[in-house]
Design a protein that fits this description.
The protein has 446 residues and is an alpha/beta fold. The protein has 2 domains: 159 residues, 3-Layer(aba) Sandwich (Rossmann fold); 230 residues, 3-Layer(aba) Sandwich (Rossmann fold). It contains 15 helices and 13 strands. The strands form 2 sheets. A 7-stranded parallel beta sheet has the order 9-8-7-10-11-12-13, with helices on both faces. β7, α7 and β8 form a beta-alpha-beta unit. α3 crosses α6, α7 runs parallel beside α8 and α7 packs across α15. The longest helix is centred in the C-terminal third of the chain and has 22 residues. It is globular and about 60 Å long. Bound molecules: nicotinamide-adenine-dinucleotide.
Amino acid sequence: MSDYLLEIAKNPYAKQAIRTLGLPIPLPPTLRRADGADVPKSLTGQQVVIGGEGLLADVVGAAATAAGAEVLTESERAHALVFDASDLRCTADLAKLHAFFHSKIRQVSTHGRVVILGRPANKERDPIVAATQRALVGFTKSLGKETGRKAITANLLTIAEGAEDRAAGALRFLLGQRSAFVSGQALNVSLTAKGEATDLNHQPLAGKVALITGAARGIGAAIATRLGQEGATLILVDRPEGQEGMGALLDAFEGTSLALDLTDADAAERISAHISETTGGVDILINNAGVTRDRTIAKMSADWWNLCLGVNLEAAIGLTETLRPKLLRKNGRIVHISSIGGIAGNPGQTNYGASKAGLIGYAEALVGKVSRRGVTVNCVAPGFIETAMTAAMPAVPREAGRRLNALSQGGQAQDIADAVAFLASPGAHGITGHTLRVCGLHLAGA
Ligand code: NAD
């Protein structure tokens, strides 16, 4: 389903006509995304201006330089501003945020990035320090809403003390083109998952096995493509109708497929047997398969309720619990595809909202059970993404869902895949128990 405003915005004649006629039509910016596999120095040619006096600025400067960026303290034009706010300890200190961004925000080029660095507020014992660090969340979200019309994203990266050497992967993701539809998010880097953090920024998934459910089309196919591009061997799972889509992916990438319905009682066991016979284990598990069956609760049949909960939540939990003890390898990655519908709720989606919120609760509780093996578990919560699922929505809610975010457009399946590829990478070892919204800073949800 094409976005007519984006199409107009791409056409210089139509754009000029709208300007000349003074029509009040806000044209969304065309987001810049990266194609193909990640390149080793993905920030090459980008000027990153770093400010602030905290201890994180040096770590971050080194990470940005290693990724190819030119790191500066002053510049007339910059691709990105990074402000180290980790040393802000009292509310008066917040004036430093104002001073830095007031003078520099206009220097950021279209498609640029803002990253603010802090410490996790919920780990602070001193209420004043906690208030000060938590203020960074509201500041970041508001700034992202101001800068979105220029396709500039703003995100907060909090780094726990001692986890500084785990932050490079997250920084590269937030500064690069893989996060074009991620804004207003607060990512936390912690020491929770045991083991060494390795930050490989080239073919990071070579030698890894990735299992993706619902892989035949839409977001699942995009995830399979990205993980395949980064070197993973794929195990694709979808319903029998998805054979053709999975076949097309396996023409391009190494791997196998399994056609089954995830709600079948023996589905998880059949998947286990397939893994045992082929790769012997998996490193990455992506629970992506999902369905909507929308009706207000008074009109919703028990069948629709059960189907939505069965595919979206029960099958994801069942598969994870079956693979976790023996087949999920050390330093593994689990990502559940949730939804902003599971954070904010939607009328007509009590079943869907419950299932997607359930995934978030499951991920958070699973952290304690898998961290000692170095496994991380996270959710990605897409906002409005242009796929067959959203093309089937009625026109008015579809248009509202698409526009009500800071970037005034729907995301692409690739945006979700880029976020998943990041969370599945060795460089995301510090991020666990998190729900990353990929929604262009949608109005719905936290
Ligand atoms: P889609 O309908 O295009 O693809 C879903 C895939 O899951 C299909 O290939 C389908 O065959 C498979 N599937 C469904 N039920 C299955 C079952 N019982 N057994 C095996 N496979 C099954 O949907 P999409 O838009 O690509 O969404 C992918 C995920 O992203 C879903 O979990 C969805 O809830 C979530 N999501 C999508 C959006 C969006 O805007 N498109 C927003 C938020 C969350």
